[in-house]
UniProtKB/TrEMBL annotation, chain B:
The keyword Membrane applies. It comes from the Bacteria. PANTHER family: DIPEPTIDE TRANSPORT SYSTEM PERMEASE PROTEIN DPPB-RELATED. CDD domains: TM_PBP2. GO terms for biological process: transmembrane transport. One of its GO terms (cellular component) is plasma membrane. Belongs to the binding-protein-dependent transport system permease family. This is ABC transporter permease. The chain crosses the membrane at residues 9-29, 99-120, 132-158, 178-196, 235-261, 281-307.
Length: 580, 316, 535, 327
């Protein structure tokens, strides 16, 4: 045995090749990595960098048709060669895993108590009373209130944060020496994220577990990690202590990665001059009527919400749910307004209402000078011609049966823009050029493009008819940071150039800070704060805004450490004594 | 819960209305005259006309329909022209064998399909999977009457293990009853078995790909336990659906199977009643079968709530 | 031997579901035949067997013996009901419920003296009132009595004597009175007749050696030995004489599917079937456990529609078709074996040859002369218009024949389209929609006399209503003796040859089968259950 | 696989599953993916062969499925009559071959018509809630009636003919397809790209035609294939009850019907015909399953080695498929 006995987890020249009908994917190429006792090791990288597979290999959880090379030593034994029984003993006992999406990591049709006990049963805790006692203890330890009563509840009866706590409780149940945490906070809101991160830290501090943390969020890394491994295309690019990495990244890729991370408080982004430009004036295509982009010249504001209530009705005879309450907001011509809030705050609903997809229960909603309430379908369609939309998930917002060109042309076809197909195509090429995509992409299908490229097509589509208003609903939240930076750049420069008004919806305060002139903060359907970006983000007045900003981990370990100390929870969230 | 059931029951009414209209108009559009069938071929046209009048068959269709529906709503399905009993009695008598047959077919199907479907999913792409899938394809392909004849020749004629045809009520003579029902049960259940096997396999595959299986695996839960405790409960939803849907097919198939095996069930009753234009029986049986089918599917919807805590019927 | 055959009147044999009509009528060999064979101890050898399982395709729609024309009814009720007179094994009428009977010299009056001590199944005594009520009802409702008994009257002379008066003497009277095929003059209690009138009776109360035990609709009918039966004190002969029942029960099971019935017979599940599929003959000949027999079930006829404007409105075209057809291939396809059909040139069947025979039409019969047929078609002005051949698939023999007929007619340039319907639709169209078809092939039962055949039956296709025809029928019915009637039969057959209302394709035979262990006498087309027993 | 497209250079999907990492499928790969799906190709080849044989052989060999020869009925297979003769002495081979064209035609037309009608009804239902209620209640009603019985009743009412049989089967199978299309269309309607199109001001027809229809096409085609198979079996079952393709026209159903009564004398009638029936339905099911795999994104990644057809194609056109076979 050549592995160092002190390291609880040791990857030795790990290679993973996956066979697919399209060929072999070399997912992980010769990664050597060691997890020290009591250490939190972050593995960062973009999607497809192989970080998750590497970590999962520690538990032998690999997709079918995977060929392995090298060794993964866990507590001295090679996981890749372990017999099924030995593997079972390792899983949960030696090493445990926390998943990205807590709602799918729990079986929806079994009570959580049953699922928690299952791991114990698998590891030979045969006494039911004992299992129950330990289960209750674990739940209490991770902060589930009233655990005795909730053992019989099903996963859907818990909130997202609570579910993640339960998943962590499961991981801790047998006090494993290694915990693999795969994007443990990605699916959660920032305030919840802060709590879970704190909980993870205590897993280490109180239980002495070593943690492998997989994440793409540099803020989380800065907050939690001791050392950072950077992976790119299956290879380990850089491995360094966290302070060192942030202070002086050695590799170009790491630098690039860090540079792309938007930082809260970084101020407004000044984009480079756009290499291409699109303007209706210069366009060969007459897109009439040409809107006047000058913000001051506009007679009516782009959007006017005045005491707007929006209600959902889930079915006949059910009580309507009020998603938006008394929101008043004005977006001037040419202005970019950011709207932030956690999930369920109603930010997307407002965006949809402006597009006419939701009906306003009370209050006034005017878009480009047109009152939306009681508007006929035809007038609504005519109005939509003047609005562009960018959606969150670029993969889902394109019909996979249409080429990129068709997608971009679609708005022109819908509104029967003069000029016929050849003019439309010329315009499409121009638009693709504007979002920095080569014209050859016109004949491709959406699924042949990467996420970032798709989102740029989404932008091109939104701009096809020279809109006066663009609504962007979380346009970058599904993208990797480096890709996100590029899309945001393009968006900003096009906005400058074309002068459309924009409503930019996001949960990411740093992103909003990059673009928005003004920012609105939503909580539970109410607009709690609205003001100039700098003011709201740097000198927030409302306690919720303050809380929100405080919860965002800063992608700088030193700063983050200071911030944490300032907050100091005072008491450990995790009560290790209770579990002993 | 009760309100939910009530609402669901209420929603069956339009479906039953459609069925009643379709059946009624189809039957009355079909050439062939029950009065002539009753009187025999030697009746004079005057006799036939008189009987038609006394049966009310000369009245406008809408009037006849309303009369029939009115009766049905008060629980009176009318009297058979030929069986010398009321339609309700006839259905009562003939439903017993059909339901027994359907139950046996479903049992045969489930006993065969759930374990094999699960194992096929577990060993996806392996030899077991391929042979199970091959068998299901054949099961879905061989028409039930061909299977029925083959079974009769082999087990009834060559081996003489089982009676060729006929029916004995298992509640009166259990062994004898099972002996008469086992061949028709297999012939009828084969297609359903194939369907359920495939559904089980697909559903289990779905579940096996779910995160929570990986999560359970990461806790060290054994593979066998994963397969049979985790997946089966999750996979039972689509399987339940397909069972509900195939019940319709079972009664349909029963028409052929019952005719071949001479089982006095609803299917055979229906086929003979169509041949002799016994309008009240045809209408009553089809309405009854439809109702059973709809109620079964309602029951299965309710079962969802038990299997899957997310489907809370009370609030649906 | 001259065999006056009883059976359904000139109507289609009814088959399939309720209208199965497979009369075991007229055995090939002679009047009576006892099926017997060496005990080949089949697997049905339970101890003390006194039950026989009979399998037939479908239940009768009613068991009313006076109304029903379905032969399965006759099969079942033959041992439940009795008539005044029956035929013995020499086909001579013998008294049954009557002690004695006599015919007046002028043939206009018959007197029947009733047997003493006869009881109905319900325990009541048989009286002259019962007989008069029964016979008068029969005269009204029975298709068999139609025509021959027009204007006749039954009266009660005293408690044990009844009298029948008829307007004209006819050989037909005793023939029909002793007929026990279908719609026969069964005697039932007056109370039953009062209750049901001319509607089918539902209380099956007779005087015979068996009683109706159970009728499970569409499943089975069980008849059971009646212990209080008062037998005639005379040796058993044909249907006459003593009836000392041995079998306790006879179970008639109704199985619609032919393949299932066949396999059921083969596997020993059933003991007797009056009707195997035609192709069963060759298949079962080697079966050591079964005894087979065949009997004539009746003609398969091609009937021409008289629709106005149709090609067969013209008799020349009808003759053309008649000339063209080659009957052997047709019948071979129809029944599957040369042993299972006869070709007869007149309207009656081969077993009736001794009584009903004629030279008329014999020479030109089955000429299969396509050249002559084409010439006739040209003469008849047939110009290739489409012709619809209507048939039902529910009678395989008719359907099979139709397929070959259609092929042969195509051979002489007739544009035939086969329209195969299920029975109910077919029969509706056959009776009511005569302007929607040109030709039909219909299987029919054997009949007692020629007036019951197509061409002479009113309200049917092929009935050309002329004074000539009326006169012919009247003269025939008034023939006092068989010999007189036979003479007029020549004229009737000449009428058929001239007007060509139908073309007879051939007579089909049925195959019946019974277990070798069963002693089962068959007489005059029916199993004689009271003389049957297990060996 | 096609050389890595530029897209794969920075594939960045939100998920970190293997799927995201695999090279994106090239556009021209449909044909190749079909070749890779052995079941699908087997099914297609079988169906095409049966189709061609049933239309080409009869005129070529002068097969007459109607020529009766009662003297020579129920003959066992011989050089003269490859499959023997039926109960009319007709050549069974000619009957089966000509029956193939009837059965396949019935199945095909039913699949086509019910597919089209089902698509129209299903999609229309999504766009109007009143229409939806009415149409779906009718569909529910028709679906609740056992299929064969409904078909038998319909043909009884309409009268026996191939056209009426097709109409009856279409009425029987359309509701199921309509329901399926509707549920798929409902799912598609809630997809972002439909919202995107709506936000661009798209009208109902545009949404239906450009977005909903293409995205329901996959289920539609798959289901139509299964309907094809079902129709072939149902026609046979109906003939078995005496209500299928009217005689003397040959269809597999009525050959089986005729064969049933001579099961013992000429078992080849049932055996050979059911053999053909089973192979055909099997092939159609394989096509359906194959198509489903083809349109199901999930199963794409899990297909194993190139199948026998891909290898054959590689032999015939080495250049095009080299990369695939090399593995």
């Amino acid at each position: 045995m050549t592995g160092e006995p002190t390291a609880p987890l040791h990857f030795e020249e790990l290679t993973l090749d996956i066979d697919t009908p399209q060929g072999t994917v070399h997912a992980v190429r010769g990664v050597t990595l060691e997890l020290q006792r009591g250490e939190i090791l972050a593995i960062v990288g973009e999607s497809g960098s192989g970080k998750t597979l590497t970590a999962r290999a520690a538990l032998g959880l690999l997709p079918p048709r995977t060929r392995t090379g090298g060794r993964v030593l866990l507590g001295g034994a090679d996981v890749l060669q372990a017999a099924p029984d030995a593997l079972r003993a390792i899983r949960g006992g030696e090493a445990a895993m926390i998943f990205q999406e807590p709602s799918t990591a729990l079986n929806p049709v079994f009570p959580i108590g049953w699922q928690l006990e299952e791991g114990l049963r698998a590891h030979g805790v045969s006494e039911p009373a004992e299992r129950r006692r330990r289960t209750v203890d674990m739940l209490r330890a991770v902060g589930i209130p009233d655990p005795e009563r909730r053992l019989g509840d099903y996963p859907h009866q818990f909130s997202g944060g609570q579910k993640q706590r339960i998943v962590i409780a499961m991981a801790l149940a047998l006090r494993p020496s290694v915990i693999i945490a795969d994007e443990p906070t990605t699916a959660l809101d920032v305030t919840v994220q802060a709590e879970i991160l704190e909980l993870l830290r205590e897993c280490r501090d109180e239980f002495g577990a070593s943690i492998v943390l997989i994440t793409h969020n540099m803020g989380v890394v800065a907050d939690l990690a001791d050392r950072v491994a950077v992976m790119y295309r299956g290879e380990l690019v850089e491995l360094a202590p966290v302070d060192e990495l942030f202070r002086a990244p050695r590799e170009a890729y790491t630098r690039q990665l860090l540079a792309a991370v938007p930082r809260l408080g970084g101020g407004r982004d000044e984009p480079d001059a756009s290499p291409a430009s699109v303007s209706s004036a210069a366009s060969a295509v007459p897109v009439a009527p040409a809107p006047t982009p000058a913000p001051s010249a506009a007679t009516a504001p782009a959007v006017l919400l005045d005491g707007v209530d929006i209600e959902y009705r889930s079915g006949f005879g059910t009580k309507p749910v009020r998603a938006v309450r008394g929101v008043s907001l004005e977006i001037a011509r040419g202005e970019v307004v950011g709207l932030v809030g956690e999930s369920g705050s109603g930010k997307s609903t407002i965006g949809r209402a402006i597009g006419g997809l939701e009906t306003v229960a009370t209050g006034r909603l005017e878009v480009l000078g047109v009152e939306l309430r009681g508007q006929s379908r035809r007038r609504l369609r005519a109005l939509r011609r003047r609005i562009g939309f960018v959606f969150q998930d670029p993969a889902a917002s394109f019909n996979s049966f249409m080429t990129i060109e068709d997608c971009v042309i679609e708005p022109m076809r819908i509104h029967r823009v003069a000029g016929g197909r050849s003019t439309h195509r010329a315009r499409a090429t121009e638009l693709l050029d504007a979002v920095e995509l080569p014209g050859s992409y016109a004949s491709r299908y959406p699924f042949e493009l990467s996420g970032g490229q798709r989102q740029r097509v989404g932008l091109a589509r939104a701009l096809a008819l020279d809109p006066e208003l663009v609504i962007a609903d979380e346009p970058t939240s599904a993208l990797d940071v480096s890709v996100q930076a590029r899309v945001l750049d393009i968006f900003t420069s096009l906005q400058r150039e074309l002068g459309f008004a924009a409503l930019f919806i996001s949960h990411d305060l740093a992103v909003v800070e990059l673009l928005a002139d003004r920012v609105g903060v939503l909580q539970g359907g109410e607009l709690v704060e609205l003001g100039a970006t700098e003011q709201v983000l740097h000198a927030p007045e409302h306690p919720y805004t303050q809380q929100l900003i405080a919860a965002v981990p800063v992608p700088d370990p030193e700063v983050q450490r200071l911030r944490r100390r300032a907050e100091d929870p005072g008491h450990p969230l995790l009560d290790a004594e209770a579990i002993a | 819960m009760l309100r939910f059931i009530f609402r669901r029951l209420l929603s069956l009414l339009p479906v039953l209305f459609v069925v009643s209209v379709v059946i009624f108009s189809l039957i009355h559009l079909t050439p062939g005259d029950p009065a002539r069938a009753i009187l025999g071929q030697n009746a004079t046209n005057e006799q036939v006309a008189a009987l038609r009048e006394s049966m009310g068959l000369d009245r406008p269709l809408v009037e006849q329909y309303l009369g029939w529906v009115g009766g049905v709503l008060t629980g009176d399905f009318g009297d058979s022209y030929f069986l010398r009993k009321s339609v309700t009695e006839a259905i009562g008598d003939n439903a017993v064998p059909t339901i027994q047959l359907a139950v046996i077919a479903i049992i045969v199907a489930i006993v065969l399909s759930v374990p094999f479907g699960t194992l096929a999913a577990r060993f996806r792409g392996g030899r077991l999977d391929r042979s199970v899938m091959g068998f299901t394809l054949i099961g879905m392909t061989v028409p039930s009457f061909v299977l029925a004849l083959a079974l009769m020749v082999v087990f009834g004629l060559m081996l003489r293990w089982l009676p060729i045809s006929g029916y004995v009520n298992p509640f009166e003579d259990f062994a004898g009853g099972i002996r008469t029902l086992i061949m028709p049960g297999i012939a009828l259940g084969a297609i359903t078995a194939a369907l359920i096997t495939r559904t089980t396999r697909a559903a289990v595959l779905d579940v096996l790909n779910a995160d929570y299986i990986d999560a359970a695996r990461s806790r060290g839960v054994a593979e066998g336990r994963l397969l049979f405790s985790h997946t089966l409960k999750n996979a039972s939803l689509p399987v339940l659906t397909i069972i509900g849907l195939s019940l319709g097919g079972l009664v349909t198939g029963a028409a052929v199977t019952e005719t071949i095996f001479n089982i006095p069930g609803l299917g055979q009753l229906l086929v003979t009643s169509i041949a002799r234009r016994d309008y009240p029986v045809i209408q009553g049986v089809i309405l009854f079968v439809t109702l059973i089918y709809l109620l079964t599917n309602l029951l299965i919807d309710l079962l969802y709530g038990i299997v899957d805590p997310r489907v809370r019927v009370g609030k649906a | 031997m001259p065999t006056p055959v009883t059976g359904a009147s000139g109507i289609p044999r009814r088959r399939r579901s309720l209208r199965r009509a497979s009369a075991v009528s007229a055995i090939v060999a002679s009047g009576a035949l006892v099926l017997s064979g060496c005990a080949a101890s089949g697997d049905g050898g339970d101890a003390a067997k006194d039950v026989v399982n009979v399998v037939t395709p479908a239940q009768p729609s009613t068991l009313d013996p006076q109304i029903s024309t379905e032969s399965i009814m006759g099969e079942i009720t033959g041992s439940i009901y009795e008539t005044l007179v029956v035929t013995d094994e020499n086909l001579v009428p013998q008294p049954m419920l009557a002690e004695s009977f006599e015919r007046s010299d002028d043939g206009l009056e018959y007197t029947f003296v009733l047997r003493e001590g006869v009881k109905f199944h319900d325990g009541s005594d048989l009286t002259a009132t019962d007989v008069v009520d029964s016979m008068n009802r029969w005269t009204r409702v029975s298709i068999a009595a139609d025509g021959a008994f027009d204007g006749s009257e039954w009266t009660e002379v005293d408690d044990s004597t009844v009298k029948l008066t008829v307007p004209t003497a006819s050989f037909l009277h005793l023939l029909y009175l002793s007929d026990i095929g279908t719609s026969y003059p069964a005697i039932m209690p007056s109370e039953v007749i009062e209750e049901f009138g001319d509607e089918p009776v539902q209380d099956i109360v007779g005087t015979g050696p068996y009683t109706l035990k159970e009728w499970d609709a569409d499943q089975r009918i069980v008849i059971e030995k009646w212990d209080d039966y008062q037998s005639v004190d005379a040796p058993s002969s044909g249907r006459a004489g003593a009836k000392d029942a041995v079998l306790n029960e006879v179970v008639f099971s109704f199985v619609p599917d032919a393949a299932t019935r066949t396999m059921g017979m083969q596997s020993g599940q059933y003991d007797v079937t009056p009707e195997l599929p035609f192709d069963g003959l060759t298949q079962f000949q080697e079966d050591p456990n079964l005894v087979l027999g065949t009997y004539t079930i009746g003609p398969i006829n091609l009937v021409y529609s008289d629709r106005a404007g149709g090609p067969f409105e013209n008799v020349v075209n009808r003759q053309a078709v008649n000339t063209a057809l080659d009957r052997d291939p047709i019948m071979l396809a129809s029944v599957g074996s040369e042993e299972l059909y006869d070709l007869v040139h007149h309207n009656m069947t081969e077993p009736q040859q001794a009584i009903w025979d004629t030279e008329v039409g014999k020479a030109a019969f089955n000429s299969a002369d396509t050249a002559a047929a084409k010439a006739l078609l040209a003469e008849g002005g047939y110009a290739g218009e489409p012709v619809t051949l209507l048939v039902t698939r529910d009678y395989t023999e008719a359907y099979n024949a139709a397929v070959v007929v259609a092929e042969q007619l195509k051979g002489i340039g007739v544009d035939v389209k086969l329209e195969a319907l299920e029975w109910a639709s077919y029969f509706d169209k056959y009776k009511e929609g005569r302007d929607e078809w040109d030709l039909t092939i219909i299987p029919q039962g054997t009949v007692t006399d020629p007036t019951q055949t197509v061409g002479f039956l009113p309200n049917r296709a092929g009935y050309y209503d002329t004074p000539e025809l009326h006169d012919l029928l009247a003269r025939f019915r008034a023939a006092p003796t068989q010999d007189d009637a036979t003479l007029i039969f020549d004229e009737m057959q000449q009428y058929i040859e001239t007007y060509r209302p139908l073309t007879r394709l051939g007579d089909a035979h049925n195959v019946y089968a019974a277990s070798k262990d069963l002693e089962l006498p068959v007489f005059n087309s029916h199993f004689v259950w009271w003389n049957a027993s297990w060996k | 696989m096609a050389p890595t497209s530029p897209a794969t250079a920075n594939t960045a999907a939100p998920s970190t599953t293997v799927l995201a990492m695999q090279p994106a499928a090239g556009r021209d790969s449909l044909w190749r993916r079909m070749l890779g799906n052995t079941g699908l190709m087997t099914g297609l080849v079988v169906i095409v062969v049966i189709f061609v044989v049933s239309y080409v052989l009869p005129p070529l060999l002068q097969l007459d499925p109607y020529a009766v020869d009662p003297a020579n009925r129920l003959a066992p297979p011989s050089p003269e009559h490859l499959f023997g003769t039926d109960n009319f002495g007709r050549d069974l081979f000619a009957r089966i071959v000509s029956g193939a064209s009837t059965s396949l035609l019935v199945g095909f037309v039913v699949a086509l018509v019910s597919g089209v009608l089902g698509a129209i009804i299903g999609i229309a239902a999504v766009f109007n809630s009143v229409l939806d209620q009415v149409l779906m209640r009718i569909c529910d009603g028709l679906m609740a009636i056992p299929a064969i019985l409904l078909a038998v009743a319909l043909t009884a009412a309409l009268g026996p003919s191939v056209t009426n049989l097709v109409i009856a089967l279409t009425i029987v199978y359309t509701p199921g397809i309509a329901r399926l299309v509707r549920s798929r269309a409902l799912a598609v309607t809630s997809e972002t790209f439909v919202t995107a199109s709506t936000m661009q001001g798209a009208g109902m027809l545009h949404l239906m035609w450009r977005h909903i229809l293409p995205n329901t096409l996959s289920v539609l085609v798959v289901q139509s294939t299964f309907t094809f198979a079902e129709s072939v079996i149902t026609e046979a079952a109906m003939s078995f009850l005496g209500a299928g393709v009217p005689a003397p026209q040959a269809s597999w159903g009525n050959i089986l019907y005729d064969g049933k009564s001579v099961l013992m004398q000429a078992p080849q009638m049932i055996l050979i015909t059911s053999g053909f029936l089973i192979v055909t339905v099997l092939a159609l099911n394989l096509i359906g399953d194959g198509l489903r795999d083809l349109v199901d994104q999930r199963s794409r990644s899990l297909v194993g080695k190139p199948g026998v057809f891909a290898r054959m194609a590689a032999v015939v056109t080495p250049g095009r498929f080299r990369q695939e076979v090399k593995r």
